[in-house]
Design brief:
The protein has 327 residues and is mostly helical. The chain is built from twelve helices and no strands.
């Protein structure tokens, strides 16, 4: 039996390698916060575009009644509104790009190639399903925000103030790490599969959530393995990006230091060129990562919903070394 990861990850790479234009969507999808499966464990802050927009609008409604508006504040008000409009545009592009990448991955599987469709054709598919996709993204972020900011952080703070290690503290810790955190992670998986049900199966949001829960329930070990594998890939990819950035910037810094003693203009040109190269590398890396991450999870969904047998690495290792456990 061929390895699940060999099939899914290589297929995702082949799709992206043959269609570099998908990196355009990856750049916007990356703003959604791709490593959200374990944010409740490793990160207590929300930095994705959905959470940022949500928090920004909540802050507006909270502070608008406390502000005394006058004509002198008009330029700042217009600037603030312009920033919010820009963030809303990025949000729409991010959600639409998510749908476009899911659909593109499915097309690559059914037609072996994406054909001659343009970026606007792919983006239109995501725009058509914008509200269902946004509702799942909001559900994922709201659950994470409510449990992390409203439950986990206060509990951790209260436990840090207590000096005794009594039975109640132990019970709270058990509830925290074995009930609340897994729940937020499960919601992340369900919404992730729900995106594909909405785009590929044309299902409504409630039905997509129900089917996504069923899919996760029967494949929870493989889902967790895949999330951990992608988390490891993210760490390795980040380290490689840091190394590549250092390799790219170092020559410019050395040359800039040498040229600065001769020509200030030459130093400025080198710094500008170096900055442009670094920005280009960063944008390219983020675009690739966003597209690849989404395609991997779409390929995972397609593999799990197909008639192919999908066994986790743990199951295959157990079948090889401890066959009686999997009989």
């Amino acid at each position: 039996m061929q390895s699940f990861y060999r099939v899914v990850y290589l297929r995702a790479w082949q799709i992206l390698k043959s269609n570099w234009r998908l990196g355009f969507f990856g750049l916007f999808v990356a703003t959604l916060g791709l490593t959200g499966d374990f944010d409740a464990i490793v990160n207590l802050q929300s930095s994705d575009i959905v959470s940022t927009n949500l928090i920004s609008w909540l802050n507006i409604f909270k502070n608008v009644t406390n502000v005394n508006l006058n004509w002198t504040m008009l330029p700042n008000i217009f600037l603030f509104i312009g920033i919010l409009i820009l963030m809303a545009i990025v949000l729409v592009l991010a959600i639409a790009s998510q749908g476009a990448l899911i659909n593109a991955s499915n097309q690559a599987n059914s037609k072996k190639t994406l054909g001659t469709s343009s970026l606007f054709d792919d983006l239109e598919i995501g725009v058509d399903k914008f509200w269902p996709l946004l509702s799942l993204n909001l559900l994922n972020k709201l659950v994470g925000f409510v449990f992390v900011a409203g439950v986990i952080v206060p509990i951790v703070y209260l436990l840090s103030l207590t000096q005794t290690n009594n039975a109640m503290d132990i019970i709270i810790k058990i509830i925290l790490f074995f009930v609340i955190v897994p729940f937020t992670v499960i919601i992340s998986f369900i919404t992730r599969y729900g995106y594909s049900y909405i785009i590929l199966k044309k299902q409504s949001t409630p039905r997509a959530l129900a089917n996504a829960w069923t899919l996760f329930r029967f494949n929870w070990i493989l889902s967790l393995e895949n999330a951990l594998t992608m988390l490891l890939f993210t760490v390795v990819y980040t380290m490689a990006l840091i190394a590549a950035s250092a390799f790219l910037i170092t020559p410019f810094l050395i040359l800039g230091y040498l040229v600065s003693n001769v020509s200030a203009l030459g130093f400025l040109i080198l710094m500008v060129v170096g900055s442009i190269c670094f920005i280009a590398l960063l944008i390219s890396a983020i675009s690739f990562f966003g597209a690849y991450y989404t395609i991997v999870w779409t390929e995972t969904f397609l593999h799990l919903t197909s008639k192919k047998t999908s066994l986790s690495k743990i199951h295959r290792l157990a079948a090889r070394h401890l066959p009686r456990l999997v009989e």
